[in-house]
Design brief:
Blueprint (H helix, E strand, L loop, with lengths): L3 H13 L2 H15 L7 E10 L7 E3 L4 H4 L29 E3 L6 E3 L8 E11 L5 E8 L4 H17 L5 E4 L6 H9 L3 E4 L17 H13 L3 H9 L1 H12 L11 H26 L1
Length: 286
């Protein structure tokens, strides 16, 4: 086995040849062959992965990095502290006007109301509803549309690699989006997504182009009365267990690397390890 240094040196080669992704796929194939996964009912969820970068590295795009760290770009040989004091009080920071000098791919993002915004990436997982085994993973930029777009990409990847087209897909309120529901229905998948409170069509006047999106959300609202939806939402908690294991046990709560492709490698290995632990317990129990 590689030690830490040799693994770091070979990381680009592993990415170029897709080794970590192939390892994860081999574990998924083993679970499918053992009959441990449902191929009909899946769940999807996303989670914040905090960036390796410090919030102090998030500076205006037109500001000199040296000046931001407390030094002077003109030189002078003065003392420049490694961890200079920075006062953010009263400053307005956004992804359009600022960027991280340490991790340029990271974005300032928060996933819920009342939570703090951190430099982050988004991790995505699809799991089966029978035993909660992770079937697909993804890492993307942290933005409001990433969860829905990544879910579609992972589903397309599952279909291309394994020929799997689930019957239903459970999701939380973060996936309450008319276009996303329409795309699932086009793929022959029934969305089982929780919905935000309030009128389905909104309180303001809608244009003609919005009618199909509103109709898709109304169809979703009617499914909430079905027993299948309730079972799907109950089983959806299993995907959160897998994400929690990857973040706490596998150390993905905060990225240990700079570069989204490296975080994807870490997520693939963490998901494969979670599946192997679950499969061992399931096979012993069976």
């Amino acid at each position: 086995m590689f030690d830490a240094t040799a693994f770091t040196h070979n990381r680009p080669r592993l990415d170029a040849h897709g080794i970590t992704a192939a390892f994860f796929e081999a574990v998924v194939r083993q679970a499918l062959d053992a009959g441990l996964c449902s191929e009909e009912h899946f769940s999807v969820d996303g989670t914040l992965i905090q960036s390796y970068a410090s919030i102090k590295s998030f500076i205006p795009k037109d500001q000199d990095d040296d000046a931001a760290s407390g030094g002077s770009s003109r030189g002078g040989g003065g003392f420049k502290p490694r961890n200079a004091e920075v006062d953010f009080h009263g400053q307005k920071r956004s992804n359009t006007s600022h960027f991280s000098t340490t991790d340029p791919e990271a974005r300032l993002y928060k996933k819920g109301v009342g939570q703090g915004a951190y430099l982050s990436h988004l991790g995505h997982v699809i799991s089966d509803n029978r035993h909660g085994l992770i079937m697909a993973t993804g890492v993307s930029e942290a933005n409001g549309k990433a969860e829905c777009n990544s879910a579609l990409d992972m589903l397309d990847g599952l279909h291309a690699r394994r020929g799997v087209v689930p019957t239903t897909l459970g999701a939380d309120k973060g996936y309450d989006s008319g276009p996303w529901m329409i795309e699932l229905e086009r793929r022959g998948i029934t969305p089982h997504a929780a919905m935000r409170e309030g009128p389905v069509g909104g309180v303001c006047r809608r244009e003609k182009k919005d009618r199909p999106l509103i109709a898709a959300r109304k169809r979703m609202a009617r499914r909430h009365a079905d027993e299948g939806y309730r079972l799907s939402q109950r089983a959806r908690k299993k995907v959160e267990e897998g994400i929690g294991w990857c973040k706490t046990i596998a150390g993905l709560a905060r990225a240990r690397h700079v570069g989204r492709w490296k975080i994807q490698q870490q997520l693939d290995l963490a998901a494969a390890a979670y599946n192997l632990v679950r499969m061992r317990k399931l096979l012993l129990a069976g």
